[in-house]
Amino acid sequence: MRKRKPIFAVENLQVERDAVILHNVNWRVERGQHWVILGANGSGKTSLLSALTGYLMPSSGEIRIGAARFGAADWREVRRSVGLVSSSLGQQIAPEQTARDVVLSGREAQINFWGGVSMAEEKRAARVLSQVRARHLTGRPWRYLSQGERQRVLIGRALMARPRLLFLDEPAAGLDPVAREDFLRFLGVLATSAQAPTLVLVTHHVEEIVPLFTHVLLLHDGKTLAAGPKQRVLTSAHLTATFGAPVSVRRSASRYRLEFGRHPASFAR
Questions:
Q1: Phi and psi, residue 169, nearest 5°
Q2: What is the pLDDT of residues 30-85, one digit of tens each?
Q3: What CA–CA distance (Å, rounded) separates 235 from 212?
Q4: What is d(CA 247, CA 19) in angstroms, rounded to the nearest whole number?
Q5: Nearest CA to 24 among 55, 60, 57?
Q6: Are the C-beta atoms of residues 176 and 184 closer than 8 Å to each other?
Q7: Predicted TM-score (pTM) of this structure
Q8: Closest among 199, 226, 203, 224 to 213, alpha carbons compared
Q9: Which of 87, 156, 192, 260 could be a cystine partner for 128, CB 3.0 to 4.6 Å?
Q10: 41-61 as b/e, with b when 16 or more CB fall inside 10 Å?
Q11: DSSP helix, strand, coil percent of the chain (3-state; round to 5)
């Protein structure tokens, strides 16, 4: 059976600085898939995300989105094709910037917005704010937005450039349990909207793997431990290796949770 052409592919990716950070990571994303990158703190998630979004230059290997190869294509074009939602971006936004300003800054994948825009761009920003359930925040300054509101506005910022992939870097961090569930439900709605990008959630919480996500990439010590459909990847044995501690995976109503302290021989696969 002939493989479909991936919309995003990583081949033998290696990142070295003072030490090897990522070791020959291979990964391919096909149309219709939504992924989770899961790993413990220090597993290489941040380094991989930085490489995939053009902020960290690989030492070797190849990253491609469609026919464009990172390093051969204009980085500005790459960043418009690959959206990023991260708390590090939020920390760079000027407190007086309104939700409308933040969304408009996404046109060119920039931080902060100054200057004029066309009527078409204003209308698109209004549509995007509605899409991310933030139209009522249009004129509210960044300093007065809650964490959950900020995450939705940052997603709107990324959507302004019509990305093919949208990386979500621990977007539920800092949210209380109710706000986290509301945000995860919002992602489910976003994934089914017209022209929605492929979503990639970066996290270390299996509880955040909601039904919209179809595939999981497990990282451990800078290496790919497993990658594929979540039903095959999210096993007790795999997650014990991922987190370096005995855990047991439990599934209930299409959601996952971990139990700790079980002996590996008793793990359900």
A1: -90, 100
A2: 989 999 999 998 888 988 988 888 778 888 888 888 767 766 555 566 666 788 89
A3: 19
A4: 29
A5: 60
A6: no
A7: 0.89
A8: 199
A9: 156
A10: eebbbbbbbbbbbbebebeeb
A11: 35, 25, 40
